[in-house]
Each structure stands twice: as C-alpha cells, then as structure tokens.
C-alpha cells in the first residue's frame, strides 16, 4: 500500500484519542490538550473508562460507545493493548491510526516484534493505515490537527517535514517558531511499521498545499518503493534530506534507535542523488534550506551578486561562494553606470558591491533596484554590518520595501537573501525579514551555503533530465554463457569464480579482457606463456586468497619460460609458508598489456543490504583502499549516468589528459560501467564483481584482473532499488501491410526519435492527443516521457528492429502511468500520421493491456475527445466502457476493468 486511505490520517473529519488522560504531563493528557487547542473543525472523542470528561469534553468508556466512527484514532495505551484496539477500530471502519506508544520491537525485542505483527495483521484486512509505533504524532496546521505530544504548534505553511525521530520535530519547531515559518505537515513516522517515507512522499508530492518536502532519515526499509516515490516527488517539488549515521558509529546508534539496520552512508548518498533529492549534512543546513524554500524559488543559476556595507564581510561571502563552486555575477557596463548615479564615488565599482559603511536605507534600496535588473545575475545577497553612522533597521525596512514593491509589480526575477551580522539589532532585523518572507541568515557563510544548496538542487533536476547519448552499437550479451559459468560454480559449492572464469563472464557482456590461460603447475605455466607471448604475467589461483599481491602471488614482466617457471615455483613456496591451509588451484598466465599513458582503475559492484547491487568506479591498483577515490551508482546505468559517476572521482581530471598525456577513452569507460551494471541486473547469484585493475588509455579499456563472488539466487531484478529496463517485453510485431517492427519499452536514448516522430504528427493529431495545439515538444516534456520509472509506468513504442535507440525511428507509442497503489493506470497513445490504418494502434493497446494485467493493475482508463472516433471505435473493440462527464461533454472517459494475474517485478 502507498497513498491508500492516507486522507484519513491527514484530512480527518473526526478524531478519537484512545488513552486520553487527565494525569498531569502524561502522554495522554498532552495529546488531548494539543488536540483540543489546535482548532479542529470536527468531533474529537476522548476514550478512557477512568474519566467522564477530559478538557471539558465527554469521555467515552470504550470504542464501541463512540457516537461516530472516527476517521483518525490516536493510540496512547500500553503496547500489549494496541493490537486489540487497532482490530476494533479497523472493524468499526477507522482507516487511519497513529500509534504513539513504544514497545514494538525496538532493538529487535522478540515480544515487541510479535505485538507489532499482531497490530499489522489486525489493520491490513481493512486497509487501515498506521503511523508509528513509537512516534511523536502528526501535525496538520491547515486542518487544525495536532495529534502529537509536541510542546509547540506551528502555523500553517507550505513546507512538509517528515522524520523518523520525534525529538527532531521539537528541535525544528523551536527553530521555526523564532522565524515565523509554518508547515503544511509535520509527520513523525517512528518505527514505520506501515506508513513509511515512500507513502508520505507519494502523498505530499500530490498535495497542493505542500511546496517543499524535508526528510530526516535514519534508515530506509523498502528501497524500490522509496526510490520510485522520491524520484516522482523530486520532479514536482524540492525534496531535501538529512541522513543520520554518516559515520559508522552514529550509523550503529541510528540502527538501534529505529529497530532497522542503517545501510552504507555512501550508498544512501548515491540513492538520494539518483532520485534528485538534495542532501544536506546537518540540521543547521536543513534549517537554512527551509528558510530559503519557505519564501522563494530556487535560483536559476549560480551567479551571485553581493551587496554590502562592509568590504570585510563581502570578502568572506565571496570566499565562501568560490569555495562552494559558485561564481560572482558580472556587472554589465550599463549596471555600473546606473550604480554610479546613485552611489558615492568611493563605491567598489565591482562585485561585491560595497556601498560603504555609512550607507542609509535609501542607498541600499537604490542599489538593490539597479542590481535587480541585471540579466547576468541569478540571486542577490544583501549584507549589513552594524555601524555607528548608519541605522541597520533603516536599511532593513528599505530592503523590505524595495522587495515588496518589486513583487507587486511582478518584476521579481532574482532570488533575494539577506544577512545582518551581529546580535541585538540584527535579531530585530532578522525578525522583520521573516515577517516579510525574505530569507535571512546570521553569517555570510551560512547565507552562501543556503544559496549553493538551492543551486545544487536546480542543477540536479537539470542533470536528471539530460538526454543520454545513443549506445555505439546494438549489443546483446551472451547471457547463457555467463549464467552457465555461475551455475556451474554454484553446483560445485564454490563462492569464488576462478580468474579465467571471471574474465569469460566479463567477455560474455562485451567487456574487453586480456587473454588468460590456466596452468596447473609451474612447467605448464611456462608452456602457456610460450603460447601467449612475452613479456608475461602470472598469478596464483586460490579460492582462499583474495588479494594475491599480499602473498607475492603476482609476477610481472617475465621475459622467458625459465623466468615464468621460476616465479611460479617461488609462489608455491611462499603460499605454503604463509597460508599452509590455502588451496592452490594453479596459475593464471597472460601476456603483459602495456599501453602508453594508461591508468589503473577499479570497476565492479557489490550488494548493499538496503539498496541491492551498487556499481563502483574509481582509481585502482594495489593501493585502492588507501587512495579512497571512488564513486557509486545504482543500476541500471546508461552512458550519461555512467559518465556522471566518472566525473565524481578525483582521477577523472587525469583521465581527461594533461600535458603530453592523451585523454583516456572515456566513452569506453562509460560503456564498460553500463555493462557491469547489466551483469548486476541480470545475474542475481553474482554478489560481488571486482575488476582491478581496469587498464584505461586512449586505446580503450581492458580488464587485467577480475574477481567474482557468487551466492544464493536472489529475487532477480526485484533486488534492484530501481527496476531495470524490462527486456522481456521486446517483441517483433507485424503490421497489417506485412512489415515487421520491434515493439519494446521506451528508453531515455529515444528522445531524439520522439522529437522526430512529433514532427510527423499533423496539427489535428496533436490536438486530439494533447487536447491543445502545440508547435513543438519541449525537452522537458520529452525527457519526462522517455525517462520513465518502469516500476510505476510503461511506455511501449514501435520502432526499427535493427537500429540503436536514438537512431531508430519511432512510429507509435502508448504510455500508461499507474497510481502509487498500482490499482489504476491512465493511458495515452499516438501513431505517426503516415502509418495510420496499419493496425499499429491496436498492437500497442493490446500489448499494454496485457502488460497491465500481468502487473496486477485493476483498471485502465483515459480521456478521449468525442470527435476522435477512430480511438473510440478501437476502445469499444477492446472492451472499454464509455462515461460522459456532465461538465466536460466533449470528453469521453473510457475505462477497462482487467482480470489480473499476479503482479510482476
């Protein structure tokens, strides 16, 4: 379940408090007081057999005596009573429950875990949703709901805050009250027995009263659900996250606190980035981001104008800006000329714009008016340092008046930030800025950091929608060979593939490897080297020794057979001395690969407990653990995502070439990473893959050594946090004229083909499909159609069978998008004008209906203009029912109920 029945929690019409109390400072009494004081416009019904009234309101002895069924119930009773209470509430029709009580398995207590399961078993048959247990509660100021034991009640606002930690809620409320910032929702999830981050992200993403979403995360329990919800939400509004447990010790503390295991922090970082969320490191940075989001849109770029009355604080702000990767905005000649007319002759004549320490409010306003019209700037930071010759409050009021006047005139283009340094006077100014809805910070560094966080968010959204390059050639991996290698080793009880086996697996997926032979003895190694050529390299083969170089198990640049045999014999002796219990299976022999100006890299993947396979890339060699230069990515990867991984490493700068050293073949590196990610997606038995070194040069890449660890057969693609491209849906189809096409899911690389296909549509087709005239398809619209989440939506296209995505033409497409619950999906379809009447529309509809049925979707629907008779006729043939909206009589709603199979993954 995702958003089903969440309205009962966040938009209740009636509320019951089970365990209400008059006992001072008890949870039941605090929650009762908060509920009755929040202004809820509906019945609030306390339940406790000990009392006749609470807060002057009739108290009921038990749930059965309630005069109406509550939409929302808050439970504050001992843990052993909760399962039966939830059962009774659910049977009476309550669909939202907040369990504040703790004692449900925190720290993996067996009795508590059993209670937790009983509680869930009571709720699920009735689709009753539960927040908690072990939570502070929920606050929805716009609904007058304060179902929590919080010490403060925030005003209504446009920001939602969701957290696993109740203590964090109180900290955020304290901070927000001082700044007058309100919230649309404050949700303490606690132990997330039912409602989790994925559910709340889905709900808040579609909430018109929520402008931005803040998360405090300790652990994620359902990675795929979270990633789907996070990606969808981050495309609609800013999502900012603080993740506890960045370091190992704090991660352990977080795990014991929530009863769930905190995964590797670097993997969480990777997941947040892939979803398009902005991660900040501290609550302070979160607060700074809130301050900005509450009052302004993210800036369009990273060009900042600094307006200041003090050179020193202007320099501090500039240092912080450059240090965080931003840039000072250029001042065009006309801007400088305009400033000369309103500023003293001694002003700085550049950015930072220093208007001198005696600047009165009018000087601030005049400068700000001029700077706001600069097209080469994205944001303005106004700084003020208190002086004895100028009134800081006068400057404050002048900035507020100028900003409000610009808003009224609809002239606001740049984002405005302020920083009034100091204490007493500055506090008054910051309070006035908060009242006026202008972000204000205590230090120049803090203001710049908040600005750059917003820049990072905007850039991440742009990067997510970039069109990836086309793959260089059609490639189908030799899955049978790779799978047989893995299954044979598993049948023999082995966890580690031999190096030659690992290289054969890589070769099956198109990764270039160095030719390698296996030798059982030193003399066999010498003979193999003769065949392969010199200089040669040999390495020991042992399932018990992971790092061969640690025992002298690698010998390089061997010039002849005698040197090979001598080196192999020496290896045998060293292994016998240092690892007497190790099994020595023989030696791998390969020719030395020497490429001028090459780099040793590492690439591979491992399996994370929360997020499944995670691809790694970085600087390789024997010192890889010391260098610590790597980037992570979640499969599946395309060439754009692979390049983004590469650019996040320090070695990337070297790989671009310098002085007389040629650039490495970065395209070959990208392609190798995509194929490693495909191995991770295809072969669920493979738990770890290491290529170290992966030799990269201007000539390409080659795997010199590889290690593969296997394990139990996993859940197939279900173990991936992001559902991969469903290759199994690819089919050859035949049109009515006998021509063969490829029907397959859409890919991000198809965007150029989508634009070309749009150009083939007639104006009438465009109007019938989009319900409005359109001259062209924007990049953003095309990216959203091609870069889809296969876990929630599907777009099937008809295209050329023998061309790579992007180069192949797109002749028709059908798209369905399911609701977060996976119950209903809305469809849309279009076929190129020159290919109508070939049966392509029917082919697309039949296949997408079959897909929806297999996924467990219960109903497909869509809107069709009444005049679009060909589409309506096709829908009738396929069994759709037609419905007419009395308010929109030109639009026919068509629906098809599906008899579903069990959903696929």
Automatic annotation (TrEMBL):
PANTHER family registered for this protein in UniProt: 3-HYDROXYPROPIONATE--COA LIGASE [ADP-FORMING] (PTHR43334:SF1), ACETATE--COA LIGASE [ADP-FORMING] (PTHR43334)
Family listed: In the N-terminal section; belongs to the acetate CoA ligase alpha subunit family.
Domain ATP-grasp span(s) in chain numbering: 503-721
UniProt key word NAD: no
PROSITE patterns: ATP_GRASP (PS50975), GNAT (PS51186)
Domain N-acetyltransferase: 741-901
Gene3D superfamilies recorded: 3.40.630.30, ATP-grasp fold, A domain (3.30.1490.20), ATP-grasp fold, B domain (3.30.470.20), NAD(P)-binding Rossmann-like Domain (3.40.50.720), Succinyl-CoA synthetase domains (3.40.50.261)
Protein name from the UniProt record: Acetyltransferase
Domain of life per record: Bacteria
Keyword terms, alphabetized: ATP-binding, Ligase, Nucleotide-binding, Transferase
Organism whose genome encodes this protein: Spiribacter salinus M19-40
Source species taxonomy: Bacteria, Pseudomonadati, Pseudomonadota, Gammaproteobacteria, Chromatiales
GO MF term set: acetate-CoA ligase (ADP-forming) activity; acyltransferase activity, transferring groups other than amino-acyl groups; ATP binding; metal ion binding
